[in-house]
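Run log, item B.
One chain of 133 residues. Sequence copied directly from the ordering sheet:
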Amino acid sequence: MYNEKVMEAFKNPQNVGEIEDYSGLGKVGNAACGDIMQITLKIENDVIVDAKFKTFGCAAAIATSSTATQMVIGMTVDEALKLTNKAVVEKLEGLPPQKIHCSVLAEEAIKAAIEDYRNRQKGIVTEKEPEYV
């Protein structure tokens, strides 16, 4: 079902955990499939210097979380906002059609973390639970 690259990312995920002094936090989830992702970003001078994830879900959810966090480290915030689920899928050399939603969650978690970062820059801090679809 999964290709070798996805299985490698699942078996040996990178950036697992949570940044304690994060700049932005993104939580997304999908109750229908059971995948829940949390991504924390450390941002300095508008550049993502670290990214970590905690994901409860299938192999594709873990692989896409790991891959997305790896991809955004070193990007500016504006560059990371342009990261698409398609780019994550391409980096993983494909996902089964029924697992594409996992890459969408990874994209949404990155964007939610950046939105949280920008809100914190304005003094707006909200610790909200994910809105499950």
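Observations after the first pass:
- The two ends are 25 Å apart (CA to CA).
- The longest strand covers residues 35-44.
Flagged for discussion on Thursday.
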